[in-house]
Each structure stands twice: as C-alpha cells, then as structure tokens.
Amino acid sequence: MAPKAKLVERAQQRSRGWVKKVAPAAWLLAAVMSLMLLVMWPAIAIYVALAGLPTLAMALVDDDPERRGTLCVGALNFAGSLPFALLALGGTLRTTPLTWGTAYFYPYLGAMVGFAIYVAVPYVLRRIVRVEEERERRLLSERQDALVEEWGANVATVRLDFSRADDAR
Questions:
Q1: Mind listing the pLDDT tens digit of every residue in the chain (169 residues)?
Q2: 118 Cβ partners below 8 Å, 6+ apart?
Q3: Domain segments of the chain: what residues?
Q4: Quick one: CA torsion of 81, 108, 45, 65, rounded to 10 degrees?
Q5: What is residue 138's predicted lDDT score, i.e. its pLDDT?
Q6: Of 47, 67, 50, which is closest to residue 59 (Cα–Cα)?
Q7: What Å distances lie between residue 142 and 130, 137, 154, 157, CA to CA?
Q8: How many degrees, rounded to 5, is the angle at CA 138 between CA 134 and CA 144?
Q9: What is the DSSP string of 28-65?
Q10: Which pTM value belongs to this model?
Q11: Nearest by Cα to 80 from 112, 116, 56
C-alpha cells in the first residue's frame, strides 16, 4: 500500500474512533436540548421540526458511514432555519415570523443547495483528478520521447506503468 494511502487510512480510523466516543454524548445533548426547546418554546420546537424534515429524510436514506450527505444537507438546512427561530424568540405563535412562507422557503432552499453540493463535489473532484492524470500522462510521454531522442529507440521498448505515477512524485 502506498504511504499516502496508509496515512489516509490511519486518519480515517482515528476519526471513526473519535466519532464513536463522542456520539453517545452528542445524542444525549441533542435530546436534552430538544426537550428544553419543546418545554420553553413549543412554537419554535414545532418550527424546527417542520423545517428540519429534509435533514431527517437525508439521514434516513444516507448510507455513507461518515454521513457526509446528512451533514451537508443538515448544516445548510439549519443555517436557513436559524434566523427565523431566533426572530421568533420574542413573539407568540400568531406574531412570530414562523408563519411566514419564507420561514420555510429558506431552510428547504438550504437543504436543496446542500444536496446539490453533496452530489456535485465528487463529480467535480473526479473530473479534476482525471484532467491531472491526463496532464501527467502527457508529460511522461513527452519525457519518454525526449529520452528516445537522446538515448535511442531501445529506451522506448520499456512500457511505462502510469498506475504508479503518484509514487514517483
């Protein structure tokens, strides 16, 4: 295994271990905070529950062990709903901005943007890697041509192995 791959694997194992240690405390904290929110501000709790439906849906269908999709959708969904929840702290259900249509538009828009980012980023990164591989292949072929000119045709009989181009760097 390449040294770079070993480092990445070791970092992933450390992060999984950390997440497993913190996850029970995070769930407990979330439950306590949700209960406090429900008791102290029931209108805001209802709003957060309704505005957070896209995050719940993504959590149910996300099969990634690191929950990247849920985190991406959830973060932007939360960012869209937080301003309205904070505005509602001072009012009652009839006077709060939670009854405005925009109070639900922005969290759902944030969730859609989060999902678009979750879908688009891997595609863009694969495309960037593919372009870099082509550039590296072209540079190595040009270098081989220069070696053929300098050393003769016998150098060209060696087949280049482009699969290990990352180890040469």
A1: 566 677 777 766 666 665 566 667 777 888 888 888 888 888 888 888 899 999 999 989 988 888 889 999 999 999 999 888 888 876 655 556 777 788 899 999 999 999 999 999 999 999 999 999 999 999 998 988 888 888 877 766 766 666 665 555 5
A2: 68, 69, 72, 73
A3: 1-40, 42-164
A4: -100
A5: 95
A6: 67
A7: 18, 9, 16, 15
A8: 145
A9: HHHHHHHHHHHHH-HHHHHHHHHHTHHHHHHHHH---T
A10: 0.66
A11: 112
Strand spans (E) along 36-157? none
Take residue 40 and report the two structure tokens written for it: 């102290």
Residue showing tokens 């791959």: 5
d(Cα 32, Cα 8) in Å, to the nearest integer? 35
Residue 42 and residue 37: Cα distance in Å, rounded? 7
